[in-house]
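Narrative of activities, Objective 1.

The group set out to show that a structural description can be obtained from nothing but a protein's sequence at a throughput compatible with the screening campaign. Below is one input-output pair from the validation batch, recorded exactly as produced.
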Amino acid sequence: MAEQVLNQFRSDKALREECAAIYEAMGMDLNTAFRMFMERTRMVRGLPFPAVLPSDKMTRTEAKAVIDRMRQEAADMPEMTLDEINAEISAARTEGKAKK
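Output recorded for this entry:
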C-alpha cells in the first residue's frame, strides 16, 4: 500500500455540508470524492473539468440589437386575454412542480 498522507484545507461550512449530502446520495463520502478528484486530475494532467471564463459579455451595440429584435418579435405576437395568461402561468407552475 502506498504511503498515506493527510490533506487539510479550509472551506465554507455550508458548501461542505451540501457537497457531503450530494456525495452521500451517490453512495460515497467526501474523502472518496476527493480521492476520485485527485485520480482524475492525474489522469488528465489538469483540472478534471473545464475551467474557463464565460464569454457572455456583449457590447452596448450588441445588447441594443438584441433588445430591438425582442421588441420586434413581441410586437408580432398576438394579444392574449387575461384568462390565457393565467392558464399559461398555471401550466408553467404545474410543470415546475412536476420537475421537483
